[in-house]
Records
---
Amino acid sequence: MAVGLVSYAQSTKPIYLDESKDIEERVEDALKRMTLTEKISVIHAQSKFSSAGVKRLGLPDFWTDDGPHGVRPDVLWDEWEQAGQTNDSCVAFPALTCLAASWNPAMSAFYGHALGEEALYRGKNMILGPGVNIYRTPLGGRNFEYMGEDPYLASQMVVPYIHEMQCLGVASCVKHYCLNNEEEYRHQVNVIVSDRALREIYLPAFEAAVKEAGVWGVMGAYNLYKNEHNCHNQYTLNRILKQDWGFKGVVVSDWGGAHDLDQAVKNGLDMEFGTWTNGLSEGASNAYDMYYLSKQYQKAILEGKYTEKELDEKVRRVLRLFFCTTMNKMKPYGFLCSEGHYEVAQKVAAEGIVLLQNESNVLPIDPVGKKILVVGENAIKMMTVGGGSSSLKAQHEISPLQGLQNRLRDSNCQIEYARGYVGDVSGSYNGVTTGQNLKEERSPEVLIAEAVEKAKKADYVIIFGGLNKSDYQDCEGHDRKNMDLPYGQDKLITALAAANKNTIYVNISGNAVSMPWKKQVPAIVQGWFLGSEAGTSLAAVLVGDVNPSGKLPFTWYENLKQVGAHSFGEESFPGIWRNGEKKIIDEEYKEGIYVGYRWTDKQKLKPTFAFGHGLSYTTFKVSNLRARNTLTVDGKMTFLVDVTNTGDKQGSDVVQLYITDLKCSVDRPVKELKAFQKVVLKPGETKTVTLKTDKRALSFWDEETNDWKAEPGEFMAQVGDSSDKLSCKLKFSLIER
Ligand code: BGC
């Protein structure tokens, strides 16, 4: 009887709606029920952030949203203006540079989960993030949205974010695939790069997102590679992503990133999103019917120019996405601005803040009975608004000054504020305004003089400076013009350091800035863009409630002369306009695989702060590296190393393993990060850390065989807690078997 009922129920429920059936079977079933018009309707946008479902079949509309640091506030159906909702104020999580600086994949998991819950509450089925474009130059306008310069670090950090978000039935859309390493001319840059650099540096984080995290969405980048836009690129999408990596999800165009019908049909694009007709220049409202993957595609099919073969392949991918998201009955409930989400924002920020320098242990401050002078626009400026598509409408944002005031309210100390400099007082993006009035009429000289006078009478001076989210700073659309701190801050910092020996500089940015005054300023902290709980987290580190444990996810160059990308003239950055016309700009990554520390190592340059650098209020000793001294080509290798807290405070250290190929048929970097682990230690405690690697860690991309290759022979493992502080070395061999 029971069996009879089950089979009756099954026979009446269409296969595509039957969750007990294999997803591929459901996809094929839905596909064969869809008309040509319905198939076309699901592969392109119908509004700024949504695409159509198929109502006749009970498939709901699909909603995406930025990404990657919080859920972007709703805009109108076909306008960038705010929709004016009252339920779209979110938690702003720290920028991904900060997440990467935590060197803690567990933080990434918390982040993805919390953001996924916010997305669920807001009815979003896909978050346009995370971003993993490699930090090639410190001028990159969107570096703050990415995970640093190292392919291994970015790979380790991107996977848990995606995994935890997708567990909730919310798709991640990893972006911007690929070679979108700067903002200026992002629609016109044609990148020329060796296969080795592509595979070893620029692709691994995307590869991990696909192969390890099983990401459901990949966003094609605006720029070109091999003369084709990356939103419809035969080589990067069809060949690498779909064929080599077996990607089963959807390729989404960056907004307005499709440029050609034939390529959009054949070269791997699955869903076209955008703004106006072509997303770039023409402004026509409700232009979605004019998209490449819309009416013109349908017409071309009806006229026999294309069969439905490519279309069906796109629709299969979209249906798979629907079944995992909109149609997923196992989706949990979402939450917006929950206490747990604020806790995550705070935890990630606290783990990502990097103590760059701390001469004479000026930090943590000892506030009791003291006068503390806080200086700088970034001490009071809201940073969650601005910067481009990652701009948010945060439910609240605690500024650094407020954070200190809150924390020290009962500490019997005096906090004073001086503006010090004026940066950007505007504070609005896309109709979201901070509501702050940052207007300041006084001249720079007067502001510096005021700050210096106050500094003379203070016990501590804490300057919050750096960049902001305005054009030509840390912002989408343009790159910085140079590495200098803007708004005359160098002058201010130098004057304050001369006036007070306990000067602390907290840099708010997603990029390295030059620090000509580094020797005069005893304490320097990298404070990133920390989101809703920025001030709370910074205060916790400055007073020592939290012992800093962040490590730089990029090399902090002294100046542009130390940067590989800037060492080969215009050809290498920003490129040369082809045929003298301002249409395509060819940019050759002449530094090849030598990006970040791989470049400074090779050139024997000493940056201001090395990749992986970050201090603590305690000290650590890394010792006794050991391992089996042979590794077969198909085997795994385990290294053990001891780490001891040699100071008097509990703290966390990040143990980092770098590998050197001692003899190789091709040129290889001096060393490359291949494993790391963050470990918490009580004073005096020692722990043994296990670091695992495999053959891939020893491999280079062989351009002759088009595959990874590890050459048997001798290698060197170096372990320590910064790329320039590797106290343990061990030789080992890879043997043929
Ligand atoms: C950005 C993407 C973003 C999209 C939608 C584009 O301009 O490059 O990162 O997801 O807009 O806002």
---
Amino acid sequence: MFSDTHLAPYAAQSATSRGRSHAEPASSSRSEYQRDRDRIIHCTAFRRLEYKTQVFVNHEGDLFRTRLTHSLEVAQIARSIARNLRLNEDLVEAISLAHDLGHTPFGHAGQDALNVCMKAFGGFEHNLQSLRVVDTLEERYGAFDGLNLCFETREGILKHCSLTNAHKLGDVGQRFIQKNQASLEAQLTNLADEIAYNNHDIDDGLRSGLLTEAQLNELDFYAKFRAEVATTYPGISGRRAISETIRRMINALIVDLIATSEQRIKDCAPQSLDDVRNRSPMIAFSDAMQKEATLLKQFLHANLYRHYMVNRMSSKARRVVTDLFNVMMDEPILLPDDYQIKKTVTDQATHGTQQARKIADYIAGMTDRYAMLEHRRLFSVDEV
Ligand code: MG
């Protein structure tokens, strides 16, 4: 059995994992969480992340973040924090790489549109969809559907969910009902996600020209590090200055998160993962840094995510997703055979709900460009 002896007693350990839904023999060369990470990297949904929008639609430029590079950045930040806190790096890497697998094409605009379409059929939420991908949708193994990941990886993927959904989810839903915490690894991956997107969205925003440095200098957190960069490297400008500033911001957030969490862990003195589950969250920024992080997020909402150019793309994205869903619901015979629910169920309502979920799975799995192609195929008479 692979050993994680260098880890803190409150870290998630392969040897004491709650295990997989389908029992499998242990590997002689890899920990259970390494295996999970490897399964995620080899799955189809992971490769699709390359062509899915983070903020900028894939064809808008080659240098913007995609869901794939975003997930890699989250994994880098999460591993860095985990190593410092003697938490399980393999587990945070697995959670990071899987956390966005359920995202629709076109980012949040796509998810919001699909959620509206699915309102009468239980809704759509990317977080739940990520779990659905690893639990049932991937078809890679002879013995089971999905990737048969460990409980701790699945729990980390399910960052949040409604009480109604929690009741339907079995073991991973329990903590939302009992109001317990997830592992420290799950808690920190959540915050690594935030550190990654807040910073890379500023970088991409500047690169696209939708944000200007003048705007960013009104944000104290950016201005402070930009001034430091100017003092260290007089005359520095352009991309190099932006990169030097953003790396300082990322570092400040990570250093603060490690120090604050270390102190909290010390104060709570958890002896095991079970202790972690029964206490309040221990992975956190200091109050001062939390304020900076919130301001950063608010800045991005006001200036980038609601920029009229982003709104235009979001509006088109909503139309594409909504059109696809509606035409497929109206005429399921247009769907590839695998996605048509045969009318073996007598109950019309059940049949409708099953068909809707199947269509949601189909649309959520699409990359940006596949969704656009499918839209042309279904709505343009010139396209075959
Ligand atoms: Mg993310």
